[in-house]
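Hi V.,

You were right to ask for the full record rather than a summary. Here it is.
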Amino acid sequence: MALKFLGGRYFTFTTNMAAVTQSYSSSAASGRQRVNGADLYYEQTGRGKHGVLLLPGALGSTRTDFGPQLKSLDRERFTVVGWDPRGYGRSRPPDRDFPPDFYERDAADAVDLMKALGFGRFSLLGWSDGGISALIAAAGNSDLIRKMVVWGSNAFITQQDLDLYDAVRDVSKWSARMRQPLEDVYGAEAFADTWEAWVDGVAQFIKRPAGNICMELLPLITCPTLIIHGEKDPMVPTLHAQYLHKHIQGSRLHLMPEGKHNLHLRFPDEFNKLVENFLED
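Predicted structure:
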């Protein structure tokens, strides 16, 4: 749910969306898959038997959010799929909207995309908003999800969280360095409108008891789960990671002392090794 771009790195791309193309290596491809009425853009790399889906954060896309993972996760052990959720990145049209069930919609799209691509069972790596959708997907699809890693994610929202989002609602006050990568993806006007709609979308959860997003689903998660959290994350307090750890049975919590919200981009080697070791267990 939190702001994935703070202190982040971005990866530009020029892939032709109209056709399946080659990227990263001869074993990687990108394209579109029709899922639940939307044409979802995805990239796939590796040839391993263990399928892994990467779920991006708010307004995120495959390469803006997961360049080091698509490039460097072990291709012999894993087949890694990155995707742009409907209304984000190259999965447009449609334009993005934020109904009360948008996390559930993303969760359903994520699972159905992997099924459409031929994966029977697979693991989830979810960042920020993508982590929330991963939690929902894992709770409802125990027969499909092998393992799950989430970071920068939360199962509820507090007024403090909402205040942080409201403080950055107006993108015209952002630095050009922060705006540019998302403006390159969406265009300046569409980015500003979509970002403001996202802030309004997450604000609706504050009206629910305890700011609930998916709290009641956590005890239903049965797959092995690794929660990674940056102790210097400016947007998601550690209490959120601790809550997930407490309520997901058998989960592991790994704290990165120097990690911020974009810990998988700032420390890709350490992050990728943690993930590979966990998925291999």
